[in-house]
Amino acid sequence: MSFLKYFQFLYHQAKITSILVVINVAWFIISRLLDMRGLSDFSQSKFLIDWGADVAQLTFSGEYWRLLTNIFMHVGLAHLAMNMLALWSIGVILEKLITPFAFIGIYLLSGLFGSLASDVATIHINVISCGASGAILGIITALLAYSLINRTDLQEMPIKSIVVSLLLTAGLGLLPSIDNMAHIGGAITGFILGGLITLCLRKFRYQSQICTILTVLIFATASLILYWGYQHYQYDYLINGYRY
């Protein structure tokens, strides 16, 4: 089987997950082809910052886009490979249970809230944060919420996929220099959003207009909370004039 046919097979198994993996891999390759600093350990910090990594001081100074762009940045090939394996292991399962819009919303909002949690925790120190771990943990906990609400039998739960994904993401939190606050923020967000969306799916038909409207309202509310949190800590940062 050629690589193209194999990718087409994977794409048909989980379209959204496949697209997310491609975006992450493509961004990793393109950014380093355009900026060779990404290949050097001596200049990598500057490279990561210039290409969208999250730094609390910069983010709260008005560079709010870093909350999102850092989700698609990875420090090295091993970092990227482990995150993408974790994403595929769990994403292919959850994607079949909820709508594509809901899946994308959980992924992005988990990553965004994880980034904000990381920034709040590191507002007094100079830390560079990047990676999809927070978003992926949101997908993992959303699947857990789905299983708990539907009272899925333990034998029917994808325990192997969950364990593999947790080891590749949260398990790395045992290592130094890992952003655990992004993990925690993403996991909590994913569990809440996954639970709310699962309740909608239980109450209404999978593709019903009411379910879609409620999903939009859930994500809109979460986005407003995210915006309020960013504005609150940005105001504190600018008014108090933190020095580092």
Q: What descriptors fit this protein?
A:
244 residues, mainly alpha, Rhomboid-like fold, globular
Number of domains: 1
C-alpha-based Rg, rounded: 18 Å
So what's the CATH class? Mainly Alpha
Helix/strand/pairing category:
mainly alpha
Order of helices and strands: HHHHHHHHHHH
CATH topology: Rhomboid-like fold
Helix % is: 55-70%
Task: Map the helices and strands.
Elements: H1 3-13, H2 15-34, H3 44-50, H4 56-59, H5 66-69, H6 77-94, H7 100-121, H8 133-149, H9 159-168, H10 180-203, H11 209-240
Structure description:
The protein contains 11 helices and no strands. The longest helix has 32 residues, at 209-240. It has helices at 3-13, 15-34, 44-50, 56-59, 66-69, 77-94, 100-121, 133-149, 159-168, 180-203, 209-240. Helices cover 69% and strands 0% of the residues. It is an all-alpha fold and 244 residues long. The chain has one domain (3-240): Rhomboid-like (Rhomboid-like fold, Up-down Bundle). The protein is globular and about 50 Å long.
Give a short overview.
Belongs to the peptidase S54 family. This protein is mainly alpha-helical and 244 residues long. 69% of the residues lie in helices and 0% in strands.
